[in-house]
Structures are given as structure tokens and as C-alpha cells.
Predict the structure.
Amino acid sequence: MKNKLLSLIVLVLFTGCSLKTPVDTHQSHDVIYLGCKDDGRTCFTKSIHAHLHRHLNTEIFCDSGLEGKVRMYVDFLVDKYGDVQVLRVRANYVAFKDELRRVFEKLPQMLPRVQNGEVLDTPFTVPVSFICQ
């Protein structure tokens, strides 16, 4: 009875974990933003920009008294599991860095890059700019 109960507990623990879906390594492709039908950079870029417009609180930037063009950069990595990892945020103020990090950490899981049958981590740098008036 104890062995059956222990087996059941172990089975529940392991089935509760979300295992990453294996990536088809037979076909090479770049990182694919889920929802894009191909691995084109255009769809990837548009999807990243749409995510920024949807989630970025621009009031933090413009209410700080800044005027004119504000430009920042976010370096992130899509790892071999398709998860986004923010590596570095380059901005003038800590509040700006925190807001950009928050938004980029909300990016959905993606299909990672596959090249010659190998799943690869892929780094990106995204410039973020807007005008405060």
C-alpha cells in the first residue's frame, strides 16, 4: 500500500511539471514568434512592437519631465527552450529600466532558432524610442 501511494505521489509531482515541447530539428529556421506563420523577421519585429505598444506604460517616461526623443535599448535572449531572458536594459533612469524589463519579461514563449539540426540560443537588441511632448 505504501509503495502504491508513493508511486501515485511521484506520478502527480512529475505530471504537474510543464515539460518543454521538443522542437523539430529537421528544418532550419530563425526564432518564430508564436502566431507568425513563417520565420520572417518582419512578423517577429511587428509582434515585438505590438507587444510593446500593448504593455509599455509610456506615462512613466513622459511624466518624468523629459521632452523630445527618448531612446533606450533592450538586449534579450530567446533560449533553446523558447523562453525570453532579459540580458541588459540601457536607459537613463532606473524606473525606465524596470519598466522595460517588466514588459520584455512578459513576452510569450517562442519557437527557438534551429540551424543544421541544432537548437540555439539567439540574442537580440531592440531599440525602444518615442517622443515626449
Q: What stands out?
A: The chain has a mean pLDDT of 79. Helices lie at 2-16, 41-55, 59-62, 94-105. DSSP finds four helices and five strands in the chain. The domain at 23-132 is CATH 3.30.2420 (TolA/TonB C-terminal domain).
